[in-house]
Specification:
It is a single chain. Helix content is about 40%, strand content about 20%. The strands form three sheets. Strands 12-10-9-8-6-7-15 form a seven-stranded mixed sheet, with helices on both faces. By secondary structure, the protein is of the alpha/beta class. Helix 5 runs parallel beside helix 6. The protein contains 13 helices and 15 strands. It folds into three domains: about 40 residues; about 130 residues, Rossmann fold; about 190 residues, Rossmann fold, CATH 3.40.50.2300. Strand 8, helix 10 and strand 9 form a beta-alpha-beta unit.
């Protein structure tokens, strides 16, 4: 029998000294066979043997729309792809165009398929995610933008209002009419506090400017979004923003020769002559951390709210028409937010009717921000009755 010591000699290239000249080719073939086995063993140990100790993780996403090449779902799908590319033995999948009112069926099917963690990425998926989570305690669930939790369900979102404020500064600096348009999806706190943050940014550099709102009652419907954008453009708005998933508002502004602010992903390439900048999401760090925590068995239910310092939210590229002075002002304000010395909902600012809301030196808590259901001064529009 060939000893381990002899195999090590073979792997070092000493096999000629180990074989006696008078021994036949049978032993030579045996040695060469064992040499091949040793090399395979060696290669496995050096280049991925420990990959055998990595637990395979299956992760799934539920999307309100198609991934496409822009927008809300696209940003989440970029995060999914990054997780699959950067983490070993991660198998990902997704279901697209899942209606919010029938999401439980899809979420349960993904749990039945053996996924270890399921990310549901639209506000209306909150309740169905929660119900499926309670019925499947062995599976981990993460829901984007609700406040629902369970022992095996967390929620996550980002302080996108920080970026909304900064893009508002850009819009306020670039408007000539003093009228900025905003195409908004649903009248829920997430959308309302984003509008407010944007308006505060606009008026920080242009105190008399206004932000006019139109509601679509949909997350993704380019036809409806485009129609509402055109209404605002016809009303004299010369800079457009949105809380929608498509590029319809950007295209409407482009076709009218007016400026626009992109949302969810960088939209400069779709209208390079009219897009000023974009408010963008980067979900990759969060998704990778959550999946790794499942693998490490350290995952816990939590409510995550990441901001500029975490890299979850950021500004997209600037259009060439944005002056350097505007970029410098935005950069200075972004630095204040990043350092923690200032944030968007610090006073003073007023209610929509002009009465004081938050005094100088005071600020709103996260709970107050995330439950916001009224507009700040400078917004033109109403919040529909429940």
């Amino acid at each position: 029998m060939i000893s381990v010591e002899h195999l090590l000699k073979i792997r070092r290239g000493d096999w000629r000294r180990w074989i006696h000249p008078n021994q036949g080719e049978t032993r030579m073939r045996t040695v060469l066979t064992l040499l091949g086995m040793a090399l395979v063993f060696s290669m496995g140990a050096c280049s991925g043997g420990d990959d055998n100790t990595v637990t395979e993780i299956k992760a799934a996403w539920v999307y309100i729309g198609p991934p496409g090449d822009h927008g809300w779902t696209y940003a989440h799908d970029q995060g999914r792809k990054a997780a699959e590319a950067n983490l070993p033995k991660v198998i990902t999948s997704y279901e697209e165009n899942v209606p919010e009112n029938d999401a439980a069926t899809t979420i349960q099917a993904l749990a039945d398929a053996g996924n270890h963690i399921i990310f549901t990425t639209s506000f209306g998926y909150g309740e169905p995610t929660h119900s499926v989570a309670l019925a499947n305690p062995e599976v981990k669930f993460d829901h984007c933008s609700s406040n629902l939790t369970a022992a095996n369900m967390g929620n996550y979102f980002g302080r996108m209002y920080q970026i909304r404020y900064l893009t508002g500064m850009v819009a306020g600096a670039m408007t000539q009419s003093g009228k900025v348009g905003y195409v908004a999806a649903f009248d829920i706190p997430e959308v309302i506090y984003m509008i407010n943050a944007f308006t505060l940014g606009v008026r920080s550099v242009n105190p008399q400017a206004t932000v006019e709102v139109r509601w679509t009652k949909t997350w993704y419907d380019p036809t409806v979004e485009g129609a509402k954008a055109n209404e605002l453009l016809a009303a004299g708005c010369d800079v457009m923003s949105q809380h929608q998933d498509s590029t319809a508002t950007v295209f409407a502004a482009r076709d009218a020769g007016k400026y626009a602010i992109g949302y969810h992903s960088d939209m400069l390439s779709f209208a390079p002559n009219t897009v000023l900048t974009s408010a963008v999401w980067n979900w990759a760090p969060y998704y990778q951390a959550e999946i790794q925590a499942v693998r490490d068995k350290t995952w816990t239910s939590r409510s995550y709210l990441g901001g500029i310092p975490d890299g979850v939210v950021d500004l997209g590229a600037y259009g060439s028409m944005v002056p350097q002075t505007v970029k410098d002002s935005v950069a200075a304000k972004k630095a204040e937010i990043t350092s923690g010395s200032w944030d968007v909902f610090y006073g003073p600012f007023n209610h929509q009717d002009g009465t004081p809301w938050v005094a100088a030196g005071d600020k709103l808590s996260d709970e107050q921000i995330l439950s916001m259901m009224e507009f700040v001064e400078g917004v033109i529009g109403t919040i529909p009755a429940p």
